[in-house]
Amino acid sequence: MFLTEAEAEARLSDLYRERSRIERAIADLTLFLDIGRRISVPARGAVDGWRDPAPVAPSPDTASEEPAGESGGDRSQARREGRLLIEAASEILEEAGRPLHAAEILEGLTLRGLSVPGIDPVAALNTRLWKRSGPDGPFQRLGDAVYALASGPDDE
């Protein structure tokens, strides 16, 4: 039942090839998802008014008018979604009754059906929370990506 040296080397070689194949598949899928995420953002019109290529090129008049009108609506939609995320994060921190790491807050957001756009959603959420953790913000930053609700003047 023992392996000879040649058999062990052959199996090891097979495992290395299999690992290489799996790593290539992981890299391919990661690249596919990354490209898909990059393409899906502009497809919603969120980046510089980019649109899917049309079979017929638009005239110069309509090309300049169309994105400008839609980008204002996209910005207001993004602001609404951002406010919704911050409100939900506040509720999650209030329900927890303790400081939470951005990853824990993201789990709560996900359970509520919300998502944070970006390649690294925890980092993107951390940035959003950090920007709102100033003296007048709803959050207090306690450490690396750890937040609590800011205590207001009537809490003291």
Automatic annotation (TrEMBL):
<feature type="region of interest" description="Disordered">
    <location>
        <begin position="48"/>
        <end position="80"/>
    </location>
</feature>
<dbReference type="Pfam" id="PF05066">
    <property type="entry name" value="HARE-HTH"/>
</dbReference>
<keyword id="KW-0804">Transcription</keyword>
<feature type="domain" description="HTH HARE-type">
    <location>
        <begin position="83"/>
        <end position="152"/>
    </location>
</feature>
<dbReference type="GO" id="GO:0006355">
    <property type="term" value="P:regulation of DNA-templated transcription"/>
</dbReference>
<dbReference type="InterPro" id="IPR007759">
    <property type="entry name" value="Asxl_HARE-HTH"/>
</dbReference>
<protein>
    <recommendedName>
        <fullName>HTH HARE-type domain-containing protein</fullName>
    </recommendedName>
</protein>
